[in-house]
Amino acid sequence: MSGQGADDWKAKFAPIAFVPPARHLLRAKDLADARYAEPVAVQDMAAAAGLSKAHFSREFRRAFGESPHAYLLTRRLERAGALLRGTDHSVAEICLDVGLTSVGSFTTSFTRLYGCSPTAYRATFPPAATWAMVPACVLHANLRPQNRTFREDSAAEPN
Fold it and tell me: CB of 106 within 8 A of CB of 100?
């Protein structure tokens, strides 16, 4: 094979460039960010990354420092915090809007992450109707909750 035919063959069957796993993991993270309000499961995120569920969970934790489930829950709770600050919707409505189905579990998870209940959190901000518009980049930088372990025992914390 020489000439034009050989070049066509090389172009057609050239090896595909290796893509580091981190890019696949970012694809799954993007899925969680974009579809947090939908019932996204770890299996869906693993499929987006092109990995098995177990391997995906290990690689995600290694790359980002938290499990895929914890990341998705944190993302949902961050959005819930933004809705509590910026709207007058009920806590139950916000729970459903961010893709969670149990108000009790939502309240427990929110309290663990933010250190207060959703109602108490909302009370620390002015009503949504009087809120001054602040650029999103400033809000993201200053209002992101500190990463806390969801299994921490709050009774062990000193008062």
Answer: yes
Contacts for 45 with CB less than 8 Å, ≥ 6 apart: 28, 29, 31, 32, 56, 60, 68, 72
Burial per residue of 100-137, b for 16 or more beta-carbon CB atoms within 10 angstroms, e otherwise: beebeebbebbebbbeeebeebbeeeeeeeeeeeeeee
What's the token pair of residue 153? 């025992």
pTM over 0.90: no
pLDDT tens digit sequence for 113-123 = 999 999 999 99
* DSSP character at residue 71: H
In the predicted structure, residue 9 carries a pLDDT above the cut 90 = no
The secondary structure of the chain in percent helix, strand, coil, rounded to multiples of 5, reads 65, 0, 35
User: What's the CA gap between 124 and 84, in Å, rounded?
Assistant: 10
DSSP string, 7-39: HHHHHHSPPPPP--HHHHHHHHHHHHHHSTTS-
Q: Is the pLDDT of residue 19 over 60?
A: no
